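User: Hey, quick favor. My workstation is busy. Could you predict this chain's structure for me?
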Amino acid sequence: MTYDQLLPNLQKKQFAPVYFLMGDEPFYIDEISNYIEDNAMPEEQRDFNQMLVYGKETDADEVIAMAKEFPFGTEKRVVIVKEAKDLKNMDRLLKYAEAPSKTAIVVICYKYATLRASQLKAVEKNGVVFHSEKMKDYSLPAWIQKHVTKYNFKIQQVVANLLAENIGVDLSRIDNEFKKLTIFLPPSSEITADIVEKHIGISKEYNVFELQNALAERKIDKAYKIVHYFCQNIKQTPNVLTINSLASFYLKLLAYNLSDKSIEAKTKVFGKNDYIQRINVGYAQNHSVLELQKIIGILREYDAKNKGVDSQLPDEELLKELVYKITH
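Assistant: No problem, here it is.
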């Protein structure tokens, strides 16, 4: 079951007896468990009937005992297990799902890991299994444009790209930034590059997205201006983010140049967005396979140096060296 399929049921208060929320993307696991925590019962009934426990601090038998307790003054109890990957005797809790209590909602938050389908048959039959997969980089701008409507905002593709390139696939952070903007912006506002710069702290001129474009377009002066800004603000623009973003960018260009250049290959490498496809295909065409391989080799070298391998240079000097080598 996907998040979009699951949410309407929660909003209608159609709760299953067991939820097993697993996977590498914590954002949706938190969204589902928090929604149940905030909406399964009235606040005044939670003290006696809603339990929040952590895997390291309990075990499956205690969770089952909580679930089987008779609710006080309400129809159901809610038991939420955070950090369930650390829970002892998980097999017993999965067995509980074969005949779960009709007066309980048990939510198991199994972040950064998964179980086999064969282990989850009982949950699948009597409850809900939700697999929260890590989002692909190329899907992030479209997700941002869709997700921002949750807060009654609008955002243009180019600004969504700016956020995606500079924050990366950190859905929780992006969501928090939108949440903070509700303090400053009225409903139906458009989130512009100026707003992103003022309230989120990402410069509309000096950011990783603009740096990769400047390098790809061989605008050396512009690239150096951006690097100078990065060096002046190295804590806000750490090398690890810059190097990872550039490596992802050039690896995609290389993958496209090594492909058959078909529509399918273009979509596989750059995603479905026409604007992103068009601009990146142009960048790929302006670089030979050998050139891209050399640049990726440079990025790998400086990724190691940034981690302290064969280098004691300050981050600022490493970044200057890196960009000089790419442009020469």
